[in-house]
Amino acid sequence: MNPLTKKHTQGPTERRTLKVSLSRVALILCLHLTLLSVGWAQTPEPTTAPLLTLDEAIRIASGTNRDIHISKIEIMKAQETVAQVKTNYLPKLDANVLAGAPLQPLNFRVPAGSFGTYPATGPIPATDSNIHSPVRFGAFVNASAAQPLTQLFKVKLAVKQARLGIDLAREGVRAQSQDTVRQVKETYYQVAELQAQVTSARAAVRSLSELSTLTEQRLGQETVLLSESLTVKAKLKQQRYQLLLAEDSFELQKQNLNRLLGRELRTSFAVEMLPFGELVEWDLDTARKQALEQRPELRGARIQTKIAELDVRREHAKHIPDLSFQVSYLGFQNVNFLPQSAGTVGFQLQWQPFDWGYKKHRIAELKGTTEQKATTERDLEQRVLLEVEEKFRKLGEARILLDALTDQREAEHTKLGEMTNRYNQKAALLSDLSQQQAAVSQAEAQYQQALAGFWTARANFEKAIGVE
């Protein structure tokens, strides 16, 4: 046979073989790019944003969080209330001045003998007398200084109650600080999880973009089918959509964390996912005891009960008469028929011996309030213990789940390596390898989610036991 004829006869077969070989090369390249994307998903991308550690985030929030700042103002207000109440220890100064002119002259008639009749002088006055005060500007002055005496006991009770208000405000700050730390931790873990998702999605977009470019080249060379090219393009668009969703969620959560830190919403930063290392083991009985001692809500409830008890004591103290040492001055300026001034020194007593049962019913009402506060305190203790139990169990569940998913993640990565070797030895199909790669991606996502869930459960448990 003519060599030229032979070459012409076998040309299509060789081209088909070449197409199959190139198609296999493209699929292998796709596989390597996919495996590379898994590796990228596990390694954070280099970033120019400054790294924000969890400890630093908590420190910043403790100093600049707006909710904490608002709660700290309550302490200042309570301190001012104490200073305000303590002023009642000091003398009470009153001054009242009435200045003006009458609308018409003041005329008084004093009948004869109004001040008595005496043998030596006869009636005083001897005849009717008229007193006239013309229309002119005058003034009436009344001033006094009263030092409380028996009221000092009542003031002492009021000061003690006001100081409890400071303690209550401090417990409010502790509660707000603990809640803010919990929110910062939860948000930080969510940002770290989303950061890992964005890194993985960007790596997948890069690999699919390179594969799409290669597929377009092979399509022009007629070594791949049109359906394969369209499939790669569709996957690329879907992956870009997933990347957009991850980036949007990532940016929103970063802004939410910046708000908790009291910073500008668009402040740039990067986070790190805390590894699952050695943990402090908690005993449930110890955790319950610490919660009863440290929970700010429970300590605040105890303070509320003490305040209610002091309300009852202050109402009982109202049975004590108000006795004050008083110095007073009375003056009439530019009035003809009245003395220019008069002063007195003495004691002033104010007492209401009969109030038709008002104090009795008021005390009964306040005792009811005290019982309510005490009952609320006991119920809050039970709810705190239940919360500690729940968070303790949730933490244990999250830890066991993370242990399981850590092993599953390692197993899926091992299977992927084994499947890759089998595929290279033509002992496995590409579909099996693709399915295993999908299992690795799913295991990686589940691991990152479980890791964030574990640290969130730990943050909730620490808040439940009152950790500062």
What does this structure look like?
The chain has 468 residues and is an alpha+beta fold. It is 67% helix and 12% strand. It has 9 helices and 8 strands. The chain has helices spanning 3-42, 54-64, 66-86, 151-220, 226-260, 284-294, 296-317, 358-424, 430-464; strands spanning 92-100, 106-110, 117-118, 122-123, 129-133, 138-148, 322-333, 341-350. The strands form 3 sheets. It has a 4-stranded antiparallel beta sheet, with no helix packed on it. A two-stranded antiparallel ribbon has the order 2-5. The protein has a two-stranded antiparallel sheet with strand order 3-4. Helix 1 packs antiparallel against helix 4, helix 4 runs antiparallel to helix 5 (226-260) and helix 7 (296-317) runs antiparallel to helix 8.
What key phrases describe this protein's structure?
single chain; about 475 residues; alpha+beta; four-stranded antiparallel sheet; two-stranded antiparallel ribbon; 9 helices; disordered N terminus
What characteristic shape results from the CA principal axes? elongated
Sheet having the most strands: 4 strands, antiparallel
Question: What is the ordering of alpha helices and beta strands?
Answer: HHHEEEEEEHHHHEEHH
Q: What distance separates the N and C termini? A: 93 Å
